[in-house]
Automatic annotation (TrEMBL):
Protein name, per record: Two pore segment channel 2
InterPro entries for this protein: Ion_trans_dom, TPC2, Volt_channel_dom_sf
GO molecular function: intracellularly phosphatidylinositol-3,5-bisphosphate-gated monatomic cation channel activity; ligand-gated sodium channel activity; voltage-gated channel activity
Domain of life: Eukaryota
A single GO BP: endocytosis involved in viral entry into host cell
Keyword Membrane: yes
Gene Ontology CC entries for this record: lysosomal membrane
Organism: Podarcis muralis (Wall lizard)
UniProt subcellular location: Membrane
Length: 345
């Protein structure tokens, strides 16, 4: 039975390792192709592509001509072709960053060729911005702005940036249950608010009349700010009102208005919602974020977690006065008495 378990475990480990193994690079026999493979498969070639992407983004932000844009697109095509030659097609598409770069390059090339086909080769005085709100030229500029996402590839190579990015990604993955609790609380408070305050606040007169008498109202009140849509007459309006109170957007105005229109006891409802959503929930969210970050930081620095340290220190303090270390003579005597050890006296 143990042999079967060991064989199964070894097979699972090998399968797990092989599943994450990237395809091998092509084996070229020509020395020239081998040199090309070494040069253009190096990480410094990727750094050069990031530098070119910086220049492309700066040119788009400042000003760009069709000739400069063609130069950048030609470089991206050349980079993609050389990487496929050096890494092989299967290994090239095994990297998500290469897939993004390749798709972006194809989109840029298609847009540029379409621009030439529709407008012809640009000449002096050509104004593509006058040809519509979103012309092909504008689409090329928007696609060029996506080049900035190429810099996301450098995050795993920087220790602290990788730590922060992985913390945020794990938080997004594990926040579903946490956000689900907030949705349930939102729903419960919205239903209770509709039962308590439905129809409590109604606009006084028409909108034009309110605007005409707006100057006579006290500044900062519910009526002067025209917060009439923030009510509990329906479920959607209730969610908006609760959101405004949660982000503390003039929440004192809501407390004053509902205490005047309904009852002073309505403040208990809004204060309870503020404590649960804005205080407790936000602090729990920050605690979850810090806990995830500290856990990853300890793993990155090869430190034991805080719970393990506390447990070890507690056990040590519990038995420090009871346990006594044996002397050297006692250890040697025990070793001599061991049935499987034959020591020379």
């Amino acid at each position: 039975m143990p042999c079967v378990i060991e064989e199964t475990t070894g097979h699972v480990d090998k399968t797990h390792i092989l599943s994450f193994q990237r395809p091998p690079r092509p084996d070229y026999q020509s020395p020239f192709l081998q040199r090309i493979q070494i040069v253009f498969g190096h990480r410094y070639f990727g750094y050069l592509g990031n530098a070119v992407a910086v220049a492309n983004v700066l040119s788009v932000c400042v000003s760009i001509t069709c000739v400069i844009n063609c130069v950048f697109i030609f470089y991206y095509l050349l980079e993609m072709s050389l990487k496929i030659l050096a890494l092989g097609l299967k290994r090239y598409i095994s990297y998500p960053s290469n897939i993004f770069d390749g798709l972006l390059t194809v989109v840029l090339m298609v847009l540029e060729v379409s621009t030439f086909a529709v407008y012809g080769f640009p000449h002096r005085g050509w104004r593509p911005e006058m040809l519509g709100l979103l012309s092909l030229w504008d689409m090329v500029r928007l696609a060029n702005m996506l080049i900035v996402f190429r810099f996301l590839r450098i995050i795993p190579n920087i220790k602290f940036m990788s730590l922060v990015a992985s913390t945020l990604l794990d938080l997004v993955k594990n926040i579903r249950s946490f956000a689900g609790i907030l949705v349930v609380v939102f729903y419960a408070f919205a239903i209770v608010g509709m039962e308590l305050f439905r129809g409590a606040i109604t606009p006084t007169g028409s909108i034009s009349g309110v605007n005409a008498t707006n100057a006579t109202l006290q500044c900062g009140t519910f009526e002067q700010l025209q917060y009439w849509p923030n009510n509990f007459d329906d479920f959607a309006a209730s969610l908006v009102t609760l959101w405004d109170v949660m982000v503390v957007n003039n929440w004192q105005v809501f407390l004053d208005a509902y205490s005047r229109y309904s009852s002073p006891w309505s403040k208990l409802y809004f204060v309870s919602w503020w404590l649960i959503s804005s205080v407790i929930w936000v602090n729990l969210f920050i605690a979850l974020l810090l806990e995830n970050f500290i856990h990853k930081w300890d793993r990155l620095c090869h430190r034991p977690s805080l719970s393990e340290v506390e447990y070890q220190m507690t056990m040590e303090l519990m038995f420090r006065d009871v346990l006594e270390e044996p002397t050297e003579e006692e250890l040697i005597e025990k070793l001599h008495q061991h049935p499987h050890m034959h020591l020379c006296r």
